[in-house]
Amino acid sequence: MTTETSDARLRIRDEDLPELLRLIKGADSVELKLSIPTENQRATITGLPLDPVEAQPRQVFFFDTPDLALNKAGVVVRARRIQGGRGDTVVKLRPVVPDELPPGVRKSGSLNVEVDVIPGGFVCSAAMKGKTTGAQIRDAVQGGSPLRKLFTREQRDFYAMRAPAGIDIDSLVTLGPTFLLKGQFTPPELGRRIVAELWFYPDGSRILELSTKSLPEEAFSVSVEARAYLNAHGVTIGGVQQTKTRAALDFFTSEIRKQETKSSKAGRGAATAASR
Predict the structure, then answer these.
(1) Is the omega angle on the peptide bond into residue 177 within 30 degrees of 0, that is, cis?
(2) pLDDT by residue, tens only, the chain of 276 residues
(3) Is 184 in contact with 7 (CB distance < 8 Å)?
């Protein structure tokens, strides 16, 4: 039996629906996402037709400043290594209004404008995508090549549209990696693919996210159908909705601050000893 909260925070407010409809109308796709509370993750995995053996391992790196200046400006820069030697990159701006993007950018074949909808909220983002290899990503994050080499000229121009002045891609620090397993299945009764991603953070915490995509005109019907499917399979719909990106950024920037504090204390200790 599913556990479903009636908390009003998990419902999109009526006054926000016109904005949601406007964003969906101008988007290329809609992604419906649900974060599963830690205590319900095992039951969710066993209750759905997921085969853990078939899950694909991935490694994700984010790039930002130690004080998350990009994130505060609505910019996400990411590289992802995929099993089999493949890799991809993305520069994402959010929030955006589709109709306000420059026409030349909007028509790019590498751009996808998507509305992410979670219980209680939504955001529209524009992602400029690129392809690379896992080896190139590993080389760049280890300092063997400039970070900018991972990204196309189109991605770098897109980055410059919103990145704070003076912060170029090569000046960013690597935040990661975060390891994850990606599985997917297509239940016959739903007729569309559901993706499950289990993110493992170095402190032992985990985020399990279920998602499915739809065309803009199908978003509301797919939302109802997906919710009914999950409800019938005992999936908890409710709880705090965690975002994978924010969790990774917070963890790794916290580690940077800890290291800086430790180095600062060590430096002061050495200076004190030298003065004696």
Answers:
(1) yes
(2) 334 444 555 678 899 999 999 999 999 999 999 999 889 999 999 999 999 899 999 999 999 999 999 999 999 999 999 999 999 999 999 999 999 999 999 999 999 999 999 998 999 999 999 999 999 999 999 999 999 999 999 999 999 999 999 999 999 999 999 999 999 999 999 999 999 999 999 999 999 999 999 999 999 999 999 999 999 999 977 767 778 999 999 999 998 988 876 655 555 555 455 555
(3) no
pTM of the model: 0.89
Domain harbouring 133, CATH code: 2.40.320.10
Helix (H) or strand (E) holding 231: helix 219-232
For residue 200, the enclosing domain spans 8-271
Q: How buried is 226 (Cβ within 10 angstroms: 0-12 exposed, 13-18 middle, 19+ buried)?
A: buried
Q: Is 2 contained in some domain?
A: no
Cβ proximity of 120 and 12 under 8 Å? yes
Number of domains making up the chain:
1
